[in-house]
Amino acid sequence: MKKEKKIKTEKIKKEKVKKGSKSEVFVKVMAGILAALMIFSVGGTLLYYVVAM
Q: Where are the bilayer-spanning segments (predicted)?
């Protein structure tokens, strides 16, 4: 009986790890996209400032 519970809890833990890893990858990808947008916006602003002068 105890072995069955251990197996079930191990399966649940593995499933949580899989779900967690997917969400972590999503967060990292979104953070990368937002960082790129920030860099492009700062670069665009500086370029506009140089051209407007």
A: 25-51
